[in-house]
Specification:
This protein is α+β, with helices and mostly antiparallel strands. It has a single domain, classed as Nuclear Transport Factor 2, Chain: A (Roll), CATH 3.10.450. The protein is 19% helix and 47% strand.
């Protein structure tokens, strides 16, 4: 398992490379901020699609803020 930690102000991001019990690789992306944890799992077969979507979103024109999903 590999872990990268990114500190950005009051937020900390952890990006961990993990493996399931049946041998499938995945990334666990965790955001720690203001006493809360948010996690996203991205499985190996989705890495390229996820990376492409991130790159596209980072290059895109920003959108206006919308209310948080509940």
């Amino acid at each position: 398992m590999s872990t990268e930690t990114i500190q950005c102000g009051k937020r900390t991001y952890l990006i961990e490379s993990r493996i399931t019990k049946n041998g499938h690789k995945y990334l666990m992306i965790t955001e720690k901020s203001f006493g809360r944890l948010s996690k996203v799992m991205v499985f190996h077969d989705h890495y390229d699609i996820f990376r492409e979507a991130l790159e596209k979103a980072m290059k895109a024109e920003p959108m206006a803020s919308t209310p948080a999903l509940t």
